[in-house]
Amino acid sequence: MGRYLNNINPFEAYKDIAGTRFFVDKSSMIEKIISDVRIDGQRYFCITRPRRFGKSVMANMMAAFFGRASDASELFAGLQIAESGYFYDYLNHFHVIYIDFSRLPRDCKSYEQYIQRIQNGMNQDLMEVYGELRLDADGAVWDNLQEVFEHQREKFIFVMDEWDAIFHKDFITEADKKSFLEFLRDLLKGQAYVEFAYMTGILPIAKYSSGSEINMFKEYDMATKEKYSEYFGFLDAEVDRLFEIYQRTAGRPKITRECLAEWYDGYHTASGVRLYNPRSVVGALTDNQISNYWTSSGPYDEIFYYVRNNIEDVRDDLALMVSGERIEIKLQGYAATSSQLNTKNQIFSAMVVYGLLTYEDGAVFIPNRELMEQFNELLLSNESLGYIHNLAKESEKMLKATLAGDTDTMSSILKFAHDTESPIFSYNSEIELSAVVNLVYLAARDKYRVEREDKAGEGYVDFIFYPERKEADALILELKIDSTPENAVRQIKDKRYALRFEGKLGEPSKYTGRVLAVGISYDRQTKKHCCKVERLR
After folding, report:
1. What's the pTM?
2. Element at 198 (helix H, strand E)
């Protein structure tokens, strides 16, 4: 077994994860790949997804199934692929060349070091397996592969993980990127020894395949391509099954099914399927704790990295998205490959590629609470964001004033917000007012689960603040334009929104604190905000 040819590591990695408590079987993808190769003649697949969406797991699965590194019959016997008619014809049937492009040689400082390690390693593997052939240890690896094919008529499956990893290294130049693309072209394009090539990464290959280098690959991204979308990320039914396992095995389960959806669901695919972040779901169920698992695996200030070049153009949209709104954009997936993100379309498109936003029907939005907390942190910690940072800083004071019934302080904070010059404060609809209210209550999200337009009683309320601690006060907040806060509170009572905090019939409420009705109004003629707080329970 070699470093690249019939490498044992993918088999061992997939065997390890397949034996875990919260493993999700997606091996039916193997059958679809085989079908595309056999029936449609497709030979070059590139799957691009945000990090931590299962790309490496699926790459390991491919290498473990097709490759000859180890007998995989027992590993796959109980999985979905075992029911396929292709199972026995393809299981361990091929030499697989597996390359994890994120692996670097020791003390790597140049592209030459990086690519030579790969080429030399592949040549060494080929010479060990095909010692009877006259292969050139210092020659091009594609020439040696062609020599093997001509004499043995053997084809190879290429499984390549994180194809774009090298592009993120500081020492890589634009000339190096071109050389790397040429390496992939020479290794794979039009080569008779390629049975098929399966490649994964984050960056869209479309930008680079527009030339002649790697345009043989067919790319499947999450935002625009429907095919294979169900294999990366967890489906709702899959999370249901994992949650059942969790309830049986956790001892004292602390997580609800609703929390998993609130925190980790919400990513949209081009096919309309909603997905959960798989790393986060497994992390939460394994630890028996809801927390930030996915975004903590990246740089702390990752979101700010994308918006820093044009804060003025995206600031209002950030305020709206943090309020739960969707922002229309023209998706430009290739923008993620640019070293400079300058326009709103470029910035938000890149954030979709990296999984910081999701995209559906021409608009981007924040998919779940896990990411919403990162955006909240962005607003609270970056002074360069201007007015939205200043309003977020006032949010702790706003929450304390509301709980104390201090309507004068509440009104003064809202006036402070309105005195900031921004289109978001035009209040052409309650959407803008909702965005402002969301900003001035941003700190509440540390203590509350905040729901917008939640079904409550006999209608939909603008905001409900569900306390994390059952003894804390709950808030029901209704907004009015060109009306009064008294009318807002009256609507809360007439529509019986407080029923949200009552227990089921015959059961006590799990919330023991006060329930406060909060009415906020804005008069467009007088430019005045008014507030009212009334205890309902």
Report:
1. 0.88
2. strand 194-201
Which secondary-structure segment (H or E) carries 40?
helix 28-40
The whole-angstrom separation of Cα 251 and Cα 263 is 22
Average predicted confidence (pLDDT) for the chain: 90
Q: Are 100 and 162 in contact (CB under 8 A)?
A: yes
98 close to 63: Cβ distance less than 8 angstroms: yes
CA distance 92 to 450: 51
How far apart are the C-alpha atoms of 22 and 6, rounded to whole Å? 28
Mean local confidence (pLDDT), 367-391: 87
Q: What region, left, alpha or beta, does residue 288 occupy, with left being phi > 0 and alpha being psi -120 to 50 degrees? A: left
Residue 261 has pLDDT above 80, yes or no: yes
| Cα-based distances in Å from 351 to 306, 344, 355, 436, 446 | 7, 11, 6, 24, 24
CB-count exposure of residue 218 (10 Å: 0-12, 13-18, 19+): middle
Q: Is the dihedral of CA 434, 436, 441, 446 positive or negative?
A: positive
Show contacts of 169-175: CB within 8 Å, 24+ apart.
169/104, 171/108, 171/109, 171/110, 171/111, 172/111, 173/111
CATH class of 9-231: alpha beta
* The pLDDT value given to residue 300: 45
On the question of pLDDT at 296 being above 80, the answer is no
Using alpha carbons, list the distances in angstroms from residue 333 to 43, 167, 313, 341: 23, 16, 19, 12
Beta carbons of 386 and 311 less than 8 angstroms apart: yes
Residue 430 has a CB neighbour count (10 Å cut-off) of: 14
- The alpha carbons of the chain give a radius of gyration, in whole angstroms, of 27
The span from the CA of 346 to the CA of 332, in Å, is 6
Q: Determine the angle formed by the axes of helices 369-381 and 257-264, rounding to 10 degrees.
A: 50
CA dihedral (352, 357, 363, 369) in degrees, to 10, reads: 160
How confident is the model at residue 313, as a pLDDT?
86
Q: Where are the domains positioned within the chain?
A: 9-231, 236-297, 393-537
pLDDT tens digits for range 83-92:
999 999 999 9
Retrieve residue 514's tokens: 């006060």
- With beta carbons less than 8 A apart as the criterion, state whether 255 and 289 touch: yes
Q: How far apart are CA 521 and CA 282, in angstroms?
A: 43
| Phi, then psi, of 422 in degrees rounded to 5 | -160, 145
